[in-house]
Specification:
This is Class I SAM-dependent methyltransferase. Keywords: Methyltransferase, Transferase. It comes from Paraburkholderia azotifigens. Strand 2, helix 3 and strand 3 form a beta-alpha-beta unit. It is globular, with a radius of gyration of 17 Å. Helix 4 packs across helix 6. It is built from seven helices and seven strands. The chain has a single domain, classed as Rossmann fold (3-Layer(aba) Sandwich), CATH 3.40.50. The chain is an alpha/beta fold and about 240 residues long. It starts with about 25 loop residues before the first helix and ends with a strand. The structure holds S-adenosylmethionine. The site of S-adenosylmethionine (SAM) has 22 residues, from helix 1. The site of S-adenosylmethionine has 22 residues, from helix 1.
């Protein structure tokens, strides 16, 4: 059911040198599949009385840099950072974003320390938590790099409270892929521990749920499950630096 992924150690989910999915076509389709969710996240950020234009931005799990490119298009960019374990995706993102901001640094998860302390207006992260074992470490890094008044917006649909996740998780595991099941309240608890103000809402509440049952990456057993996933369980967290 799920496109399998190749292996890697430590807290980084198992990823290949050049693709997240075993079938690289799925990597090619990732941006068009996810753009509706990226736009929903960006709409929420726009409507959220964010008191500054976010010019210094980090995307955690930035893949080939599509979301950072869209953010630079919307708000301009002084500094764009990405964290991404796949070397080929990092290289593509670095090239694609080169002319989008004065500083562009696409880093591996081992290079988090190169993102300066208290430097960023905005951190975004879309559907990456299930690939990361050390959620507390991730939230600690977010708290460290956010400037005063900065915010992180984290989208997660693959989590312990979403009934379809156990099905997708089992399929990942059958394919030898290490994934992690985090509880939404765990994320919010870590945020509080690191001095951030945690908040949560559904990412989208209305609209069309586009879905082709031939899509074998994240399959749904019913339309009800699809709608519950898209409009109820796919969560947007806001972690605000005081
Ligand atoms: C499901 S994809 C989502 C990609 C992108 N955020 C999007 O919305 O299209 C998960 C991404 O997280 C990356 N990833 C895996 N482990 C990671 C880690 N430890 N830190 C940051 N990113 C990671 C993967 O390589 C992949 O690009």
């Amino acid at each position: 059911m799920l496109a399998a992924l190749s292996a890697a150690p430590d807290q980084t989910a198992m990823v290949g040198e050049s693709s997240f999915f075993v079938d690289p076509n799925d990597d090619d389709l990732l941006e068009s599949r996810n753009s509706v969710f990226w736009e929903a996240m960006l709409d929420n950020i726009r409507r959220d009385r964010f008191g500054r234009v976010p010019k210094r931005v980090l995307d955690i799990g930035c893949h080939r840099g599509g979301l950072l490119a869209r953010i630079a298009e919307l708000w301009g960019g002084d500094a764009l950072f990405g964290i991404e374990p796949i070397p080929a995706a990092r290289a593509r993102a670095q090239l694609r974003l080169a002319s989008c901001a004065k500083t562009v640094q696409i880093l591996s998860p081992e290079q988090w320390k190169l993102v300066p302390d208290r430097s960023l207006d905005l951190v975004v992260c879309h559907e990456v938590l299930f690939t990361i074992e050390d959620l507390r470490g991730l939230v600690g890094n977010i708290a460290r790099v956010l400037a005063s008044g900065g915010r992180a917006y984290v989208v997660a649909g693959c989590h312990a409270e979403n009934p379809v996740w156990s099905m997708w998780r089992d399929a990942f595991e059958r394919e030898g892929r290490q994934v992690y099941t985090h509880r939404p309240l765990e994320l919010m608890g870590f945020a509080g521990e690191f001095g951030l103000n945690p908040a949560v809402r559904p990412l989208r509440e209305t609209g069309w749920a586009t879905y082709d049952p031939a899509d074998n990456v994240f399959a749904f057993p019913s339309v009800g499950a699809l709608l519950d996933h898209q409009f109820r369980h796919k969560l947007l967290f806001r972690l605000a630096q005081k």
